[in-house]
From TrEMBL:
Pfam families in the cross-refs: CDP-OH_P_transf
Biological processes per GO annotation: phosphatidylinositol biosynthetic process
InterPro entries: CDP-OH_P_trans (IPR000462), CDP-OH_PTrfase_TM_dom (IPR043130), CDP_ALCOHOL_P_TRANSF_CS (IPR048254)
Record protein name field: CDP-diacylglycerol--inositol 3-phosphatidyltransferase
Organism: Bathycoccus prasinos
Residue ranges, compositional bias (Low complexity): 1-12, 19-29
Length: 291
């Protein structure tokens, strides 16, 4: 009896150790490369980004600019910011967990374009006099990134961010220096969000980080001129508000981002035209194989 009980105890302990090891291995394999790409950590973050973006756009179109009781404007900005933070996290987890995939790269890029396009559409409705500007920014953003990815893959590059051999210095700096890219991207998103905040009654009431009194604005002619310029052209609040101050801070990075987009568009067109003989040879080779 003693022998049997000891055997059963050893068997149960072995089962427990097996279960523990299998559970630990399964949990550890979740954060490494495995067969189910759909549930890779960066891809799950990508799904969360999409959900947050849709939540943000839902609240931004549900009276958030005029109704302060439901805090729709605040929820819209907050969820969009969370989505933007997730944009940084998915890349970090992809590299850390060795879960970089083509699906994840496309999901990230598509989500970026959807988020920016949706936000610009909302701004075009708020600032009706700037609809053409918003449409132009949408065209530039989508065309430059799509052509860049297509051209880079067509000429055998790993992705649209592989610009080490580009003749455009700005693009090499943009894609090689993460700080520079981050400043440009963050400035653009901050500008768009603050333009939205400037038209929301609740959010536009937030005071600026730099205390600027009415007396200072009136005394300093440059500040007064710039303040009136912003109010007339954009219809935003005074420089004393949080939104307007960050609009001013974000403009330089926003302009650099648009210049980079233009350079990216031109670079993609040049690359596709220069490699056309190679593309033609491949098409001919594919045609002969069919025949």
């Amino acid at each position: 009896m003693v022998r049997k009980s000891s055997i059963s105890l050893t068997n149960s302990s072995k089962k427990k150790s097996k279960n523990a090891s299998s559970s630990s291995s399964s949990s550890s394999s979740f954060f490494t490369r495995h067969s189910n790409v759909y549930v890779y950590v960066p891809n799950i973050i990508g799904y969360a980004r999409l959900l947050l973006v849709f939540v943000s756009f839902y609240y931004s179109s549900s009276g958030g600019r005029t109704n302060t009781k439901n805090h729709a404007g605040f929820i819209s900005v907050f969820t969009y910011l969370l989505s933007f933070i997730c944009d940084e996290l998915d890349g970090r987890f992809a590299r850390k967990c060795n879960q970089c995939t083509e699906f994840g790269a496309v999901l990230d890029m598509v989500t970026d374009r959807l988020a920016t396009t949706g936000l610009l559409i909302i701004l075009s409705n708020i600032y009706s006099e700037m609809q053409f500007v918003c449409i132009s920014l949408i065209f530039l953003d989508i065309s430059s990134h799509w052509l860049q990815m297509h051209s880079q893959l067509a000429i055998g590059k790993r992705g649209h961010k592989d610009m080490r051999e580009s003749r455009f210095r700005l693009l090499r700096l943009y894609y090689a220096n993460r700080i520079f890219m981050g400043v440009c991207c963050v400035s653009t998103e901050v500008l768009y969000l603050c333009l939205f905040m400037a038209k929301d009654k609740e959010l536009n009431a937030i005071p600026g980080l730099v205390p600027i009194s009415k007396e200072i604005i009136k005394r300093v002619s440059f500040i007064e001129t710039f303040d009136s310029f912003l109010q007339k052209t954009l219809g935003v609040g005074s420089l004393r508000t949080f939104a307007t101050q960050f609009i001013v801070l974000a403009i330089p990075g926003f302009l650099l981002k648009q210049i980079a987009n233009i350079a990216q568009l031109r670079s993609a067109v040049v690359a596709m035209c220069e490699h056309e003989p190679e593309f033609a040879a491949k098409r001919e080779e594919a045609g002969t194989k069919k025949n």
